[in-house]
Write a structure and sequence with these properties.
CATH class: Alpha Beta
Number of strands: 8
Number of domains: 1
Helix content: 25-40%
Structural class: alpha/beta
CATH topology: Rossmann fold
Strand order of the largest sheet: 3-2-1-4-5-8-6-7
Largest sheet: 8 strands, mixed
Length: 237
């Protein structure tokens, strides 16, 4: 079987593997993901109704988004390279009785060789800033999407404000995330992600920013992409 070099940082995999048992603890290090999940889920579903769709969640981790998309009626495959996180995701799906959900330990690039143009919707959320070659992931996601399919990304902007809020504030002052969760050099400017999308043949349809008030613990979508941001793209017919 043809495979591709693994586009993953062993240190990143180890970091998230060590936290895997806490994925579904809403008061754990993954609390921010639980808090933003309803926002990103509604955004995706409003642009492209998930009911009856064949969906791929790239870098699914413990399955927070994967599980919620399946519960909206999608047939979902979640993929990741963290064995521990996938076991947690599988166990949660079994205990919760989540329908139409499957998990596989495989890279996006390898799956793209195996199943090109197979998915109506591809999501890749909070992952690009953790891999050595984000452009390779974008290309793989584009390949995996069917013509006219949707591909959604979310990541962190490489900006002074992002460094201040997402690293200094979230990791070292407010302790919202474990120290070392994000590396500034790996963050992506929206212009860089847009270029990767264009190079992969994806049309950018919508951009949204994700904002957070640390006092009220409220998250909301806006036009401000200076810290967290989301891209909705579509593969031409």
């Amino acid at each position: 079987m043809t495979t591709t070099p693994i586009n993953a940082d062993p240190a990143e995999l180890a970091k998230f593997s060590d936290l895997a048992h806490r994925w579904w603890d809403v008061n754990s290090d993954f609390r921010p993901l639980h808090q933003i999940n309803p926002l990103r889920l509604a955004w995706i579903n409003n642009l492209c109704s998930l009911q009856g769709k064949k969906v791929l969640d790239v870098g699914c981790g413990g399955g927070i988004l994967t599980d919620s998309m399946a519960r909206l009626g999608a047939d979902v495959l979640g993929i990741d390279l963290s064995t521990k996180a996938l076991r947690v995701a599988q166990l949660h799906a079994l205990e919760a009785g989540t329908p139409c959900i499957e998990y596989r330990e495989v890279s996006a690039e390898t799956l793209a060789l195996q199943q090109p143009a197979s998915f109506d919707v591809v999501t890749c959320m909070e992952m690009l800033e953790h891999v050595p070659d984000p452009g390779s992931i974008v290309r793989a996601c584009a390949t995996l999407a069917k013509p006219d399919g949707w591909v959604f990304f979310s990541t962190l902007n490489r900006s002074a404000k992002s460094f201040l809020f997402a690293i200094v504030g979230a990791e070292y002052i407010l302790n919202l995330l474990p120290k070392g969760t994000h590396a500034y050099a790996k963050m992506l400017k929206p212009s860089e992600l847009a270029r990767s999308c264009r190079n992969a043949g994806l049309d950018l349809v919508q951009t949204r920013g994700l904002e957070h008030n640390p006092i009220t613990q409220r998250y909301w979508l806006s036009e401000d992409t200076s810290v967290n941001y989301l891209f909705a793209t579509q593969k031409p017919r």
